[in-house]
Q: What sequence folds into this?
């Protein structure tokens, strides 16, 4: 399960991961759809569900940080 927020949480069976990449500009409609698409594309490339969630959340936040610098 992925819970978007200031620190996005990724919950596995007995583990919780916190991702801190991103910025307040991500609090827009459609950002969750983008995140779902990123995770879905990673799953299609045969990443495990946990790997896809962790990498997808990180890349989503990293993209937001990079675009803020432009």
A:
């Amino acid at each position: 399960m992925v819970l978007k927020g200031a620190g996005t949480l990724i919950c596995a069976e007995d583990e919780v991961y916190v991702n801190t990449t991103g910025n307040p500009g991500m609090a827009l409609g459609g950002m969750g759809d983008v995140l779902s698409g990123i995770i879905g594309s990673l799953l299609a490339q045969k990443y495990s569900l946990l790997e896809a969630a962790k990498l997808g959340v990180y890349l989503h936040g990293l993209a937001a940080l990079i675009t803020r610098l432009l």
Q: What stands out?
A: The chain has one domain: 2-69. The radius of gyration is 12 Å. The mean pLDDT is 93. Residues 2-69 form one domain.
